[in-house]
Amino acid sequence: SAIEALKEYEPEMGKVVRSAKYGVQKIKSREIVPGDVVEVSVGDKIPADIRLTKIYSTTLRVDQSILTGESVSVIKHTDAIPDPRAVNQDKKNIIFSGTNISAGKARGIVMGT
After folding, report:
1. Distance between CA 55 and CA 105 in Å, rounded?
2. What is the DSSP string of 61-86?
């Protein structure tokens, strides 16, 4: 089914920052919950839908072709999106589960798993 095919794109691990431990720790993606702070960098597969809060590199580029079919990676930012009816392709401040970081490093808060 389509759902099972999409599950193949789910990453197995994610890098989270939790107050119980210092720094970034790797945990299984299925243990990531909304509200977790997650760090991503080039080569990572996104473990959840994440609202970007900080970009550490000059730019952050994400390959979201599995969602949109776009052949080029998309530049993301942390600015608010003013249109509440914006479609996912226009949500440049959110990185989506199963997509890949093609360039850069960032941190954000998990919105959904």
Report:
1. 6
2. EEE-HHHH--SS-EEE--S----TT-
The pTM for the full model equals 0.85
> In this predicted model, what pLDDT tens digit does every residue of 4-61 receive, in sequence order?
665 565 668 899 998 766 788 898 989 999 999 999 999 999 999 999 999 999 999 9
Closest to 24 in 3D by CA, of 11, 13, 38, 10: 38
**Distance of alpha carbon 64 from alpha carbon 72, whole angstroms:** 8
**Tokens matching residue 109:** 């808060």
Residues with Cβ within 8 Å of 78's Cβ and at least 6 positions away in sequence, in order, are: 52, 53, 54, 55, 93
